[in-house]
Amino acid sequence: MNVLYINACVRDESRTDRLARRLLEKFGSYREVRLDSEQQQPLDNQSLTERTRQIAAHDYVSHRFDYAKEFHDADIIVIAAPFWDLSFPSLLKIYIENIYVTGIVSEYGADGIPRGLCNAEKLYYVTTAGGVYDPKYSYEYIKDMAQNYFGIKKVELIKAEMLDVAGYDPQSILEKACEEIDGLFK
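Now predict its structure.
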C-alpha cells in the first residue's frame, strides 16, 4: 500500500504529528512530505505562467509536478495540520496550490465540472486545537477538495480539542484520541 503523509506541523513536539503517527503505525511504511522542509513557493505570475504553459502542452516532466504525481499515486493520504487561527497552516495551502494540476489530480469534463483522477481510497485529516475545534475552515475545505476535485470519496476527521483550556487534561484528551484511532482498525 502506498501511504502518503503530508505533515504540516512545524513544532518539534507537535500534538497533531503525535496523533498522525499513531494512525500511520496502522499502515506500516509511508512516505512523508514535511511541508516546513520543502521548497514549495506560492504561485506567482512567472511560475503560474510557466505551469499553465506546461499543463496546456501536457508536459508533466518538470519536477514542479512531482508532488502532484505523488499525491495522485497514493492509496491512502494522511494530512496532519494543527488548527491555527481558525484554519490550517499556510504551508498546507501552498502545497494544495502546487499539487492541483489539471491532467494529474483532476480534469474538467465538457460540462466544466471537475472530476478527480487520484487513486487514493481514503484521506485522513488529523488535527488538534487548543480550544473548541470548528471544522468549517479547515477539515471541510480539505474534504470538499478531496471528494469534488481529487476524486477521493472517503474522508475522515481525527481530532483532539480543548488541549489548552484550563481545567482540561491535554494528556488524557490525546490518549482518548489515540484510542479512537486504534478503534478504527479493530
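The mean pLDDT is 96.
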